Structures
1.
Amino acid sequence: MTSVGLRVSELTTPAFLVDKAKVETNCSNMIDTCKKLGLKLRAQTKTHKTIEGAVLQTGGSKRGLVTSTLQEAEFYATHGFDDILYGYPFIPFHLPRVTELTRRLEQFHVLVDSALAVDTLAKASPPPGKAWSVFLKVDCGNKRAGVWWEEDGGVDLAVRVWEAAGVTLAGLYVHCGDSYHAEHHDKDTSNAVAGAGDGGKEGEGESAGWAEGPDKVRDQTIERLLNFAGRVREGGVVCPTIGIGSTPTCSRPAPNMNQLTELHPGNYIFCDAQQVSLGSCQVSEVACCVATRVIGHYPHRNQLLIDCGFTGLTKQGMDQLPGGCCIFKDHAHLRLSKMTQEIGFVDDANGDQLEFDKFPIGSLLLLLPWHSCATAAMYSVYHVMVEDEVVDEWRPTRGW
Amino acid sequence: MTSVGLRVSELTTPAFLVDKAKVETNCSNMIDTCKKLGLKLRAQTKTHKTIEGAVLQTGGSKRGLVTSTLQEAEFYATHGFDDILYGYPFIPFHLPRVTELTRRLEQFHVLVDSALAVDTLAKASPPPGKAWSVFLKVDCGNKRAGVWWEEDGGVDLAVRVWEAAGVTLAGLYVHCGDSYHAEHHDKDTSNAVAGAGDGGKEGEGESAGWAEGPDKVRDQTIERLLNFAGRVREGGVVCPTIGIGSTPTCSRPAPNMNQLTELHPGNYIFCDAQQVSLGSCQVSEVACCVATRVIGHYPHRNQLLIDCGFTGLTKQGMDQLPGGCCIFKDHAHLRLSKMTQEIGFVDDANGDQLEFDKFPIGSLLLLLPWHSCATAAMYSVYHVMVEDEVVDEWRPTRGW
C-alpha cells in the first residue's frame, strides 16, 4: 500500500519525511561546489541508502559513489550504478562478493589499510579482463580506519599495492570523521549548542590537536594527505585520485581543496541538527524530519508524551541540544527529555508551564533529528513530501 | 537464501544470534514462575517481535500477549495468536485498526489513560457481537504513561470505562519501567556496574523515592496498584485483571505478587547486560549476542576495529559497563569505546597492551548487548544457534 497522495496528517507515526525541494537543493549544491573546485564528487550513500537519493547525488549520471556496506554496493550495482567504491576496510571474508562486484561493474573499487588485504587480492585472480582497483585509506589524525600518515609503513603499503600483480592503485582516501568532534563553528547556531559531540560520549578527547573547528580539521587533513601523497609519489607510484570526505569539511570549500581530485561527503543530502550545530548548514536546509503524534497529557509532571521513542529517532545526541536530541519544528521551547522504545517524553525546555491545549492528543509534531544517518536507519520507507503531501516513497536497502 | 546449516564463521557480520537452549529456558522459567504464583503470564513481545519467540513465551498456546505497536498486534493476529493487548495509549487515529483487530480476534484489548480515549470508544460502535475491551494504564510512580495512582481522576476514569456503553473494563495495567533505573541489586554482578541507567541519561532523577532497587519498585508498585484497585472497586466497578510488568520486577517472585492476577514482562526472553547489571539474570542466561569480525589492527593507538557500529548494536548503554556498552564474551578485558555507523573501536579496558595476534583480522568476537530490545530492532533476521550452527531463522516484524 503506497502512501503517495496522503497528507502528513494521514500517515501512521512515527514517520520519516524527506522534503523534496530541500533534498534536491542539497544535492545540486554539493555538485556545484565540486564543479567550482574542479573536483569529482564521489557521494557517500550511507545516510539514505536509496536509489532515488543516489540518483540526485550523482546528478542523474549514476556514476561515482562510495558505500558503507557491501549490501549497498550490490544494491546500487543491481540498479544500474557504476564506479562504486566499497568504502570499508577489505577483509578476506569479503573476497567472493568483491570478486562478483568487480566482474559486474566497469569500475568497482575496494578500500585497504592492511598488508593482509593487499596480499589477499594479489593472490586471488581478478575476474577475466579486470584488475582489483584499490583505494588506500589514510588516517591523517582522524582516528578512524587507515594507515597512519606519518608512518613509513603506510607508504610501504601504497608501494605494495602498486607492485602487486593484478592490483591497481586507484588513489588515497581519507574520511575526516573527526570534523564531527571539532570545536563549534560560528555560522548559524540559533538552535545549536557549542562543543557538539556524537552522542555525547564518543567525541571525548578526539579534538585534541584541532583548535579551530572543522576548517582546521579540513586544512590539516589536506596538508597531511598531500604530504603522504608526495612521499608515495617519490617512490615512483602513480596515485590518480586523492580525496577527502565528511559533510562538515566539504560544506566549507577552501582554496587548498583544489590540490585534491575528489570529495566524498554523504550526510549533506539530508543534514541534521548535528550539522547545524557544526555550522555545516542552516536549520532551514535540514531536508528530513520525523513526524510524531501527541499521545498523552501528564499535567502532574508538566509533560507530553509522543509516539516517537528510540526506534523512531535513536537516542543519539541526547542532551546535546535545547530540544534534547532534536529540534522541535515551530516549537523551540519543547524538549525531548527521555525515550523508551516507542514513547518520547516531552518537557518544556525552560521549565515553564506547558500549554496542553496547544498540543491536543493526536496532533502532529515534527522533529529534526540530531543524526539523520542513525534516524533514517530506523525506517523501511521515507515519505517524500511537497509541502504536506506525500509525492514519492523511497525504500532504503538495509543489512550488510 | 537461508542461513540454516551455516556455522557462525560463515555468517555475514554483524549478525544477531539467539541461543536456542537459553531462549527456551528463559521462556519456560517465566511460565513456571507465573504458574507457581498462580498468575497469568501475558508476555510482552517488543523485545523480539517474532512468531517463534511468542510461541515460546505462550508455551505454545498462542494466547496472552501484550504488544508495543499496532503492527505487532496485526502480525500476531495474522499468525493465529489471540488474547492480545495493544499495550500503548489508545488515540482516536488508531480507531480503524483497533476496530478491525477487535473484529478479527476473540479477545483484543486496548490500553487507555485519557477521557478522550474512553469517549472515542464509547461513541464508536464496536464490531457486531463485540465490546471494546479496555485496560486502564496506571502510573504508580513509574513515570511512564498512565493515570496517577493517587489522583481521584484515575478512579473516575475507571468508572467512566465501566459505565461507557459498549466498553468492558478488562483490568488495570502497570509497567514498572522505573525498575530499570533503580539501584543496583546484588545478585550476579561479576560483569556489571552499579547504578545502571538506560543510556546513562534518561534514568537521571528517576529513582527518587526508590531506595532499594527493583525489589522496592516491585513492592511499592504492587502496594500502590492494590490501593488504586481498592478505590476503583469501592465504586462498584468490577476489575478482573490486575497486572504489572518489567523483567527486573518479574524476575523476582515475591509473596505479595499473589494479590495480582497477571504479569507482563518481555525482555526476559533474551535478557542482556543491563538485566545482568540489575541482577535480573546471570551472564550465562543472556540468550542473544552480536557476532562481529575484527577488521583492522591499529597498534599506534593500541586499538582493534570491528565490523559492528551503531547500526549493529546501537549506542545505548555507552560507558555503562567495563566493556563499554556490551560484554565481550570470553574477553572481559576488551572495551567497545566508540562506534561510528558501521565500525566499532575496541580498546583494552585496563589500558594494557592489546595482544593483536590473539585477534587476527577476520576473527570473530561475540558481544552481549546492553539493551537487547534496541539491538534486536536493528536486524531483519535472527540466527538461532545450537552451539555454533544456525538451526533456524526468526524474522521480526517492524514498523508501526
Note: The domain at 284-394 of chain B is CATH 2.40.37.20 (Lyase, Ornithine Decarboxylase; Chain A, domain 1).
2.
Amino acid sequence: MAVYTEVTDEDLTAFLDQYELGQVTAFKGIAEGVENSNYILHTTTGSYILTLYEKRVRAEDLPYFVGLMEHLAGHGIDCPVPITGRDGGALRELCGRPAAIVSFLDGLSPRRARPEHCRLLGAAMARMHLAGAGFKMRRENALSLPGWRPLFESSAARAHEVQAGLAEALDSELAYLEANWPKDLPEGVIHADLFPDNVFFLGGRLSGIIDFYFACNDFFAYDLATCLNAWCFEPDDSFNVTKARLLLQSYRQVRPFSQAELEALPLLARGSALRFLLTRLYDWLHHPEGALVEPKDPLEYWKKLGFHQRARGPGDYGLD
Amino acid sequence: MAVYTEVTDEDLTAFLDQYELGQVTAFKGIAEGVENSNYILHTTTGSYILTLYEKRVRAEDLPYFVGLMEHLAGHGIDCPVPITGRDGGALRELCGRPAAIVSFLDGLSPRRARPEHCRLLGAAMARMHLAGAGFKMRRENALSLPGWRPLFESSAARAHEVQAGLAEALDSELAYLEANWPKDLPEGVIHADLFPDNVFFLGGRLSGIIDFYFACNDFFAYDLATCLNAWCFEPDDSFNVTKARLLLQSYRQVRPFSQAELEALPLLARGSALRFLLTRLYDWLHHPEGALVEPKDPLEYWKKLGFHQRARGPGDYGLD
C-alpha cells in the first residue's frame, strides 16, 4: 500500500508529452506494492500503470527490471510491457524519481489461493523460467544466502521481543544453511517474490504476473520454494500437499526438473522461509509505532520454516 | 490515502452478483479519500468506483449522501452516479461495512488551482446549489457553529504544542463567531468539502465533483467561503484576489446572491477557516506517532483565518 510521491497534473502532462498515449482521462494513486508509488492511468488509448521508483529500489537495478519485462513480454509471458516514449526509452524521470509506464494487466489476485491457482501458477512460472533464457543482463539475488546474515544481525539483539529464543534459533538455522546451501543447481532469471498479490487470474486462466522488482539470477528451484511457502500453506499454518503437488507437477510438465533440484527443495524452502522471516522481522522491529501499514507477522514464516525443517524429502511436497 | 478494508476476490464476486455490471476484469484499491476504502473496478461494461464506508462516516447518513448523488446526477450535475443492483438499491453491505458502487468520473484534480479552475468551479457550484433544490432529505451540518466548541475543547489543552497562545486566540474567535453567526441566509444542499482534490477537470471543462460525504443543508454562501479558503490562497499564504473574483463572479452569473450573503462572506470565511483549523488541529494532536499519513498543517488555516479577520468587506474578495 503505497503512493509516496504525489504527481501534480502539470507534472503528469509534461511527462506524458514524451509518449504517444493519447490524452489522459484519469489518474489515481493505487494501493499496490509497498516499495514504489503506483498510479493507474487512463488515456484515450487505454489503461496503464505509472510507477515512480522510491528509494528502496536501487536506480542501477532498474534497467534490469525494465529490460526483463520487455524481454519476457516479447517472449509471450503475460507481464507488464514497458511503454517506450518518443525517444525509444522506457525509463525516465518524474518528480525527481526514476519512472516508467507499463501496460495494464487485467485480472484479480487471489486473496486465498485455491488448488487450481497453484496448478496454473506452476506452468506459468516454468514458462517464465524458460522465456528468461535469452535475457542478456544479470543481477545477483541480494536477498539470498550471503545477504541473510547481515540482515539477521540487524535484528538479532531485539529478536526476543518477537519470540523468546528466536535469535539463537535463527543463528543456528543460518549456520545450517550456510553449510549446506547448494552450489550448482540449474539457474536463470527468477521472479523471487511470486506471492499471490503479484499474480492475476481471470476467467479460469492466469492472466498476468507483475512486480518484477526482486527479479534476479538464481536457482530456478528457489522460485518454486518461495511459491511453496507463499501459496501452499493454509491460514492455520498447515501445509496443503495437494496444492504443492499441483504446483510442482504442472511446473515440471513445462520444465522438467532434475533429481538434484527435487532433492534440494526442502533446503531451498527453508532458505526462502528464512529470507521472508528475516525481512519481516526487520520491518516488524523497525516500523514506526502506530504506522498505518501494519507489518506482516514474521512468525508466520517461523512456522513455515519448521515444516521444512521436519520434511524428509520431496514426498512431503506431494511428489514421489 | 486509504484502503482500510481488504476485499477478497471471493467477497467481490459474491457482491457483484447482485449487480448487472458484466464480468470484473480488474479491481485495485485507490489512494483517494481519507475516510473510506475506495477501489477502482473495471468490468466488461466500464469503470466504476466501489466504496466501503468506514467508521468515520455514520451509517445513518449514507441514504442522504447516496440519495443526493442520485438526485444531482439526475439533474445534470457531473457527480458520481450510484449504481443500483438487481434489487433496485444502491446501498448494501460488503465485508461487514456499508458499501456502494458509483460511476467512474474522468478528469484530473488540480494540485494547484489556476484562475480558470476557479472560474469553472464557481459556475459548477452554483449549478449544484440550484440542482439540490428538489432534494427531499435533510442533514444538518455537523461541522458548523454548534460543532466547533466541542471540537475546540477536545484540543484546547494541547493547542499550545502547535503555537503559543493558540487556545486563547481560538477561544476568542469562537466567541466572536458565536455572537455574530448569521441566522437567515439562503440555504440548501451544500457540498461542504469542495477542495481541489474533490473536483476533476478535463479538456478545459470541469468534468466532475466527487466525495459528497460532508454534504449537508446549510448556507449556500458557506460553500463559497470554503472554496475561497481552499482555492484562492497561494502556497505562500497570500490571497489571490483574481481567483476569488473569478470564483464569485462566475457563481453569481448562475445563482445571483443577495447583498446579505455578500456581506456575510468575510464572517463565513472566518467560520470555515476555523472549522478546518479545528479538525486539522485535532488530527495533528491525535494522530499516531510516525503514521504514514502526515496530518495537514493546522497553521495553514490560522493564516487564512487572519486574512478574513482583517478583511473589511466583499471588496477584499474582488467584488465591488
Note: The beta strands of chain B are 24-30, 37-43, 46-52, 92-94, 97-103, 187-190, 199-202, 205-209, 216-219.
